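Quarterly update, task 2.4: adenosine-5'-monophosphate-propyl ester-bound model.
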Amino acid sequence: MPESKVYLPHERVTRGARINSIAEYQAMYEESVNDPEGFWAAQAEEMLEWKEKWDTTLEWDFEKPHVAWFKGGLTNASYNCLDRHANGPRRNKAAIIWESDSGRSKVYTYQSLLTKVCRFANVLKDHGIKKGDVVAIFMPMVPEVVTAMLACARIGAIHTVVFSGFSAQALRDRMQDSGAKAVITVDAGKRGGRVIPLKAMADEAMLECPTVKKCIVVSHSRATVDMQPERDFYYHEETRRRDISNDCEPEWVDAEHPLFILYTSGSTGKPKGVVHTTAGYLLGTALTTKYVFDIHDEDIYFCSADVGWITGHSYIVYGPLAIGATSLMFEGIPTYPNPGRFWEICEKHGVNQFYTAPTAIRSLMKSAPDAPNEYDLSCLRILGSVGEPINPEAWQWYYDVVGKGKCSVCDTWWQTESGAHMISNLPGCTPMKPGSASLPFFGVQPVILREDKTPADIGEEGRLCIKFPWPSMLRRMWGEDSEKRMMDNYFGQFPGHYFSGDGAVCDEDGFYWLKGRVDDVINVSGHRMSTAEVEAALNSYGDVAESAVVGYPHEIKGEGIYAYVVLNDGVEASDDLRKMIIGHVRKDIGPIAAPDFVHFVPDLPKTRSGKIMRRIVRKIAAGETDKEGFGDLSTLVDPSIVDTIIETRPNQ
Ligand code: PRX
């Protein structure tokens, strides 16, 4: 744990903040953990509208595991995000500001978004989609992706958004696993001036997805696409049909009705479908948006994530819209047409809260360190960070150069599974220590445990676990054997606790310092990647006998992907083969999974029981060459392989 500087929130952030003294935070936190049911019940009354109130606030048993919040209550996420604002004083307020790749912007008010959502919800119903059906959404950052998500929620359909940077195969796998009945996509996406043929990829995926009966295509790039009669329909034609009404009564669903499935990587090769339910998720995202970003009614809030990830779900769509905020979404990338793009958007729209990932901060800090000075960023008040630990240098640049020392940097630790922020400073009250996510959010009860399950001491690194349920937590895994998979992945390692997969330390002030994943998950540019998943893709290439994938420290990405590859007998290693193998992974999973390094090796260091000794390949990937630090090698079948691997390591 580094000796850290401490920064107090600036007076211009504190003034007017919802919580502006640490004593106030502490009092509310105490209340939230001393009487969690009372706390969350009061928040659920205040933050959400209910058609019918719940019977039981909380049912839980982490040994099973089973968790349910607000059971028996009837509500609807789309109603909470739209109607209650559109039917009140926020009717003409901007709900979504959309900034295109080429620099155009469009504004959707609460009223206009509600109408779009209702019309599209009616289209979905007309195409046979009903409550409980799964709808895949394979779309880039176009405004219709928000409409699609909320239209599903309106009719009780369960959406599963698949990141548009994934491959056709990855889409196919997710549609097969979820049993999707329909897919919503665009003709082609545009990012950084490039055109990505998403409809053609969806066509390829649908060849092996018999459950998908309908495909709705948003015409975004005027690209020519194949349209299969009876199956494929254009969004604009369907939503403009004269028999489609502007009104759509929301489907009132139980609080525990699934809102969406989001696939994420775990320790195994197959992505897991994490299920989030309606009321608890919405409450968690709404409350954190309110307090962590301290959004006030006149603010403009900009989250640069993609809706294909949990950050986009929770903090572009559901959280901000649930509290009636203005959420700015951006189609493009931070470096196109130049590395001032984020700052230009902040100036153009007068952004007050900006939320991005450390990898973007590091890349902009490196490529254009002075660019923020060329723009008027005086509206900024809160700078959020998410996805990986933020290194103190990046924190400092974000704070000094982007924030001019007058903004609070909020380092938010959370996960796909947590649904909402778990550990973060509150901008108006928490002292900031660069590199620490700081203190738990209301109702969150973290504990750091040793491997032997006893509590770690102050300052001692251990496994970050949570000992009490929170409303926005995942409920189950989509598909069969959910309970077993929940145990295997999250609740089995430390009985009675949810295990996050992260290592962490708590300091003497109660501040949490995240240390990265302790399982076989790597974090590449804030994207979660399973090493087993990349290995499975590598191994499916004809010339590859076996492989081992590990992360290694990368200046911009946080972690890079390092692949050790053993070729089949008789196959010659070459640069061309390396490129073909990387291309194969891109096609199998998507460009984000492409290895930065492919290191051809004659064999892998294996124990007599056939297990790859991962700590060794990890150390070599990180550039360590001194075998002294490698620990005991005597259990290896062939210890000499370690020297061979060190000697053949390519230069970075
Ligand atoms: O390792 C932690 C890291 O990202 C993981 C969760 O990844 P994902 O489910 O894709 O969600 C990313 C967006 C919430 C965590 O297990 N992580 C996320 N935020 C932070 C972080 N690590 C350190 N500090 C953070 N602020």
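Highlight for this quarter: DSSP finds 19 helices and 30 strands in the chain.
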